[in-house]
Amino acid sequence: MGSKKKAKEEEERIQEEIRRVRLPKGNQTFGIVEQRLGGSRMKVICLDGKTRVCRIPGRLKRRLWVREGDILLVEPWEFTGDEKGDIIFKYRHSQIDFLKHKGYLKKLDELEEF
């Protein structure tokens, strides 16, 4: 394959990712991983101003690898929603750029300390 064809395919793949950016629905919110706690749990600073201990559900455990500083989609639990939640989705770099450009992550600049 020629390099032009590879570049074109890569550009199409990136556009496909951006087209399908998942946005928060209902009580879901954006969050940033502050610390990994072990046992598929981590401390997440959510953009609604609360710090939650979030877990990766079993259906995503093997597929979702999360590090400190990653931006996630978090769904708070119904009962202890201010303290705990589930990680629903991890955003890629191109998707984060798209969300910042569209203004969804404006509070991120205020919270970002690092």
Task: Describe the protein's topology.
Elements: H1 3-19, E1 29-38, E2 41-46, E3 51-55, E4 71-76, E5 84-90, H2 93-102, H3 106-111
Parallel strand pairs: 3-5
Antiparallel strand pairs: 1-2, 1-4, 2-3, 4-5
What does this 3D model show about the protein?
This protein has 114 residues and is α+β, with helices and mostly antiparallel strands. The chain has one domain: OB fold (Dihydrolipoamide Acetyltransferase, E2P) (Beta Barrel). It is 29% helix and 30% strand. Strand 4 and strand 5 form a beta hairpin. It is globular, with a radius of gyration of 16 Å.
- Share of residues in strands: 25-35%
Based on secondary structure, the structural category is alpha+beta
Topology pattern, helix = H, strand = E? HEEEEEHH
Average pLDDT score: 82
Query: Which regions have little confidence, pLDDT < 50, spanning 5+ residues?
Result: none
CATH topology: OB fold (Dihydrolipoamide Acetyltransferase, E2P)
The CATH class designation is Mainly Beta
Keywords:
about 110 residues; 3 helices; globular; 5 strands; alpha+beta; OB fold (Dihydrolipoamide Acetyltransferase, E2P); about 30% helix
